[in-house]
Design goal:
By secondary structure, this protein is an all-alpha fold. The chain contains ten helices and no strands.
C-alpha cells in the first residue's frame, strides 16, 4: 500500500508551492507589461490580443491563489476546533469556496488549451485540418472539467475526489489536459521544423526558425511534466496529487507568458540586428527600403522545389 501524506500537510504544502509559482507568474506578467509598452511599435493586432489573454490568465491565477489563502485561514484558524479539524473543512467538496476555486482551475486549463489550439492554427497557415483532433479534445475537456465542478455540490460529507462518481470525469480531464498540451506543442514544433528544413535552400543568411521551436518546447516542458505526474498520482489515489493540482493554475499562465515574452524578445533582437546591419552596410538598408515599396504581380515559372517555397510563404504569413 502506498504511504499517504496527511491532508493537513498536503494543504499547507500545496499553498506554499502555489504561492511560489504565483511569484514566478507575477514576474513574467510584469515583464510582459514591459514588453508590451517598450515594443509596442513592433506589435500587431495579434500581439495585443496575446497580451490581453495574458492579463486574463494572470487574473484567474490571482483569484485562485487568493481563494486558497482564504480557505487555509478559515480551515486552520476559524474551523480548527470543528469535528475533523482543518482536514475536514478543506477536504469538503460541496462548499461554495471549493467549487469556485476548482472552477477557476478548470477554466484556466481550458483557456490555456484553447490558446494553444489557436497558435497551432496560425502556425499551420490557418489550416483547420491541423486542429481537428485538438478541437475535439477541447470539447471533451470542457465537458469533463465542468461536469466535475457540477457534481461537487451533490457530494455527501466525507467524500473525497477519489469517489467513484468523480473518478471517471477527473481522470478524463487530467488525461485530456496532458494529451492536449503534448499534441499542440508537438504540432507547432513539427511545423516550425518542417518549414525551416524546406526553406533552408532559399535563405540568404544563416538565420533559422529552430530557436523558436526550442522556445516552444522548453516553455511547455514544465506544464507537461506537472500534468503527467498529476495524472499518475491521481490514478494511484495519492493525496499528494493536491499539491500538483493547485500549482497547475499559475503554471498555465507561466507557460503562456514565457512563450510570448521569449518570442517577443527574439523578434526585437532580430530587428535590432537588421538595423545595425543596415547602418553598417548601405546595401542592406537599400534592400530593407525596397521591401517596403509597393509590389506588383509578376509571372515566374518555377520547375523545382515548389512545395518548399509554398510552405515557407505559408509560415511567413502565419507569423
Amino acid at each position: 500500500m502506498v504511504s499517504q501524506l496527511s491532508f493537513e500537510k498536503v494543504f499547507i504544502v500545496s499553498l506554499w508551492l502555489e504561492s511560489l509559482m504565483y511569484g514566478f507568474l507575477l514576474c513574467l506578467f510584469l515583464a510582459s507589461v514591459y514588453v508590451n509598452i517598450t515594443l509596442r511599435r513592433h506589435q500587431d493586432g495579434h500581439s495585443r490580443i496575446m497580451f490581453y489573454i495574458g492579463i486574463a490568465m494572470f487574473l484567474m491565477a490571482s483569484i485562485h491563489v487568493s481563494m486558497n489563502c482564504y480557505r487555509l485561514v478559515e480551515g486552520y484558524v476559524t474551523h480548527r476546533s470543528d469535528p475533523g479539524g482543518p482536514a475536514a473543512y478543506l477536504g469538503a467538496l460541496a462548499p461554495w469556496h471549493h467549487v469556485f476555486k476548482d472552477t477557476i482551475y478548470a477554466s484556466q486549463e481550458i483557456f490555456g488549451d484553447a490558446v494553444a489550439i489557436y497558435r497551432t492554427y496560425v502556425i499551420w497557415g490557418r489550416n483547420w485540418r491541423a486542429i481537428i483532433l485538438p478541437a475535439a479534445l477541447l470539447i471533451v475537456g470542457l465537458i469533463s472539467g465542468y461536469s466535475v465542478c457540477g457534481l461537487y455540490p451533490t457530494e455527501a460529507a466525507g467524500r473525497t475526489v477519489f469517489d467513484p462518481r468523480l473518478q471517471h470525469w477527473i481522470s478524463t480531464f487530467y488525461a485530456v489536459s496532458f494529451v492536449q498540451s503534448f499534441l499542440t506543442t508537438g504540432l507547432m514544433a513539427f511545423r516550425i521544423w518542417q518549414t525551416d528544413r524546406r526553406s533552408k535552400k532559399y535563405r540568404a543568411d544563416k538565420g533559422n526558425l529552430l530557436p523558436v521551436m526550442r522556445i516552444l518546447i522548453e516553455s511547455a516542458a514544465l506544464q507537461l511534466l506537472v500534468e503527467f505526474i498529476l495524472l499518475i498520482m491521481y490514478a494511484i489515489n495519492l493525496n499528494a496529487q493536491f499539491i500538483l493540482l493547485e500549482i497547475v493554475t499559475p503554471i498555465v499562465g507561466i507557460t503562456f507568458n514565457a512563450i510570448t515574452i521569449r518570442i517577443a524578445f527574439r523578434s526585437s533582437e532580430s530587428m535590432s540586428n537588421f538595423t545595425r546591419s543596415s547602418e553598417a552596410n548601405p546595401s542592406a538598408h537599400a534592400i530593407g527600403e525596397a521591401r517596403s515599396m509597393p509590389m506588383r504581380h509578376i509571372k515566374i515559372n518555377i520547375n523545382q522545389e515548389t512545395e518548399a517555397v509554398a510552405d515557407t510563404e505559408s509560415f511567413s504569413e502565419a507569423k
